[in-house]
Write a structure and sequence with these properties.
This protein has 174 residues and is mainly α. It has a domain of 116 residues: Globins (Globin-like, Orthogonal Bundle), CATH 1.10.490.10. Helix 2 crosses helix 3, helix 2 packs across helix 6 and helix 6 packs antiparallel against helix 7.
Length: 174
């Protein structure tokens, strides 16, 4: 518990009685708040920046829209592709650069789709990994792949739980 040491009362404030708090210089033992450092996400060390995210996300979803397995689902569910791409850029910026811009609920969105399963996630990851490898330097591509694998596993586990299904087999961690 913080104890405020006894100190002489400050001068009488204008129009009022005595101030009952010690003058700031008399507060011994109280520390200054720690300076806040900017949040640095894992993408910074791998060379990920906003421009890279803005190249990767649209290129990836262009493939998704043309994919025979994923395209019909995404094209049915997404009305405004510009808005969706902006939201997904915010998502990846938040994940890898810790910008905090994404304000969505991916689990709830995916849970509403009763027709997606493990095969869809596998295909999504294949296309995402392929696109990251094509457009990003090796360290950044590796980070995008690793994070997408974690996100895919998390979504699959959450969906299985929400549906009362057994969890899908997950990839072994290396």
């Amino acid at each position: 518990m913080l104890e405020i040491p006894e100190a002489p009362l400050s001068s009488v404030p204008e129009g009022g009685g005595p101030c009952l708090l010690p003058a700031p210089r008399d507060l011994k033992g109280m520390s200054e708040p720690a300076p806040t450092r900017p949040r640095v996400g894992p993408g910074v060390a791998a060379g990920v920046d906003e421009e890279m995210i803005r190249r990767l996300v649209p290129a990836f979803y262009a493939k998704v829209r043309q994919d025979p397995e994923l395209g019909p689902i995404f094209n049915r569910e997404i009305d405004d592709w510009d808005e969706h791409l902006a939201k997904l850029c915010d998502f990846w910026s938040s994940v890898l650069l810790m910008t905090g811009r994404f304000k969505g609920q991916p689990m709830a969105v995916h849970a509403r789709l009763g027709d997606i399963g493990p095969a869809h996630f596998t295909r999504w990851l294949q296309l995402f990994h392929e696109t990251a490898d094509e457009l990003c330097p090796p360290a950044a591509a590796a980070l995008f792949r690793a994070k997408s694998n974690q996100i895919g596993e998390s979504l699959q586990l959450g969906l299985a739980f929400a549906r009362g299904e057994p969890p899908p087999p997950l990839r072994a961690r290396r």
